[in-house]
Amino acid sequence: MIREGTGEPLVLLHGVLCSERVWRRVVPYLTPHHDVIALTALGHRGGNIAKPSTTISDLVDDIEATLDRLGVEKAHLAGNSMGGWMAIELARRGRAKSVCALSPAGCWDRSTGDQHHIVDKLRSIEKLTERTRWALPALARIGIVRRFAMRDNAVRGDRLTSQEVIDMADDLLGCHARDDLLRITDKLTPLDLLPCPMMLAWSECDEVIPPDVNGVHARTLFPQAEWRVLPKVGHIPMADNPKLVADTILESIQQAV
Fold first, then answer.
1. CATH number of the domain encompassing residue 224
2. 109 falls in which pLDDT band (50, 70, 90)?
3. Closest Cα to residue 182, out of 117, 238, 237?
4. Domain that holds residue 58
5. How many separate domains does the chain show?
6. Which residues pair with 243 in a beta bridge?
7. Residue 200: exposed, middle, or buried by beta-carbon count in 10 A (0-12, 13-18, 19+)?
8. For a 10 Å CB count at each end of the chain, is N or C smaller?
9. Phi, psi (rounded to 5 degrees) for 48
């Protein structure tokens, strides 16, 4: 867990196969304004150990238990991909003051097969990481290699350090719940009346959960949510432009005040 800053609590939730580390570049922009808490999800590297057949509901239960342990009844929530899904589910349970969902997962329609596209994309990333992890300490020193390695998740992966790319590879390989999570058939269900202010902030260049497919579906699920497109960033926008992500989160909170 990363916990820094003072003020109202702001909880950051990462995407599948990642960890709290994905927020490191964003946290310094948020700590002057909030008590920032970045958590690692159940079944992910550094998080609690998951039981077999882990579901999104299990991950949300685990985050909720952590909030209880920390004495946080309600918090502003920001999440990317799976983390956005979890943030929305926590809001549904009454644990959110506001939600900023960055390209949230779960916004798919099984009849169109778009979930299969997402899983296939993540599986290809997984296979590439498994084959190349041994060479990353040398290869990740080269900017063009970092950009290539991160091409499905970021527009400018070369802006990451070699250690950050290695950490992301290790987070993926260290996620012992990844098979369960990549097999799930659940999806987000509609909220006609939002339990708190919500912003859907979609990465313009998202190749994993595209705005013109899943973003469109998200707007039908949550018609009252604020809609925002984040320019020139990929599926993990924190890798491309951490300040833009922080500014977007802070704006979503300000709208809730």
1. 3.40.50.1820
2. confident
3. 117
4. 2-254
5. 1
6. none
7. buried
8. C
9. -65, 150
